[in-house]
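Attaching the record inline, Q. Sequence:
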Amino acid sequence: MKLIVVIPTYNEADNLPKMVEALFALPFADRHLIIVDDNSPDGTGQVADELCTQHPDYMTVMHRPGKLGLGSAYAQGFQVALKMGADVIVQM
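Structure, as predicted:
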């Protein structure tokens, strides 16, 4: 079962590393994390990219051009998750 977690972000640079670490510590074998960043001015997108280099097979980072909103961030993340073959999509 492929589990994909979608996390929209805006100004979460300090929280994101802890969140990713906690999610990857969970006992799920086939999991993937999609970060949808709305061009956070605090560097969240860059932090997400750095984390992605540490977990390239288990993370995807989507960069959006501005603060487009939570609902559309989830919708775009869900579309990507479905294209990736998700059996279960978790929103955070």
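The longest helix spans residues 70-83. The first strand starts at residue 3 and ends at 9.

More tomorrow.
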